What does this fold into?
Amino acid sequence: MRNLTFCDIRLHPSTVTSTFEEAMTGDIMPKAGDLPHPPGTLFVRSLYREAGDGFPPTYRCVVNSILVSDSGFFGMRRRVQRLGAETTDPRFRLVAGVLPDDEAALDVLRPGDSHSLVMVTIHLPLRMIQEDFERELVLALEDEVGVPSRVNNADAAFWTRDDSVVPGRTEYVVAAIGGFASLQLRPGNRARIEKAGGALVETRGFHHVGTVSGDEPPCDRKVR
It folds into this structure.
């Protein structure tokens, strides 16, 4: 059962950004969960910093895994708070689809090269036919991932579906990863999703800080 679990983190004004990022990528994410895991267990932890000049800075930690956690967020939440940060309740979403394919999408997560993350939340009324909407959603994401442009060069996209979190709505969360001059889906693809009946209720853009895959050492952190 593949899933995305993500938790937002806001630093206290007195917390030093570089110290927080170093602790997250060098200690907390590598020691997440109940180690050791069986060989080949999918457990990719990535830390992203929200784009913009907001202070104190906000981060999103995203776990792509077959493992499931409780509100402790794989044992990381309390340790993050001790660093001088506030955390939201983790959100758990089952992965409904991956582009370009499973192996290639995971390869995008694992290198240490810097990349950006765009996460889009979409609501679809329950009266709408999910299969029809999802057909258009996949076509929009295929255009986003498979067709590079001067604005966006998405290398992979994950999308999730949940019928239980918003009354009367199916909530979709799209996570697109790559290089973005504009941290959002391209206008034509947003329009296609909306024409199919989906309401884009939130778009947030993040820059990659570091990734830990499985029980491996962390990838090199990009310090800004």
Notes: The longest helix spans residues 130-146. Residues 217-224 have pLDDT under 50 and may be disordered. The longest strand covers residues 199-213.
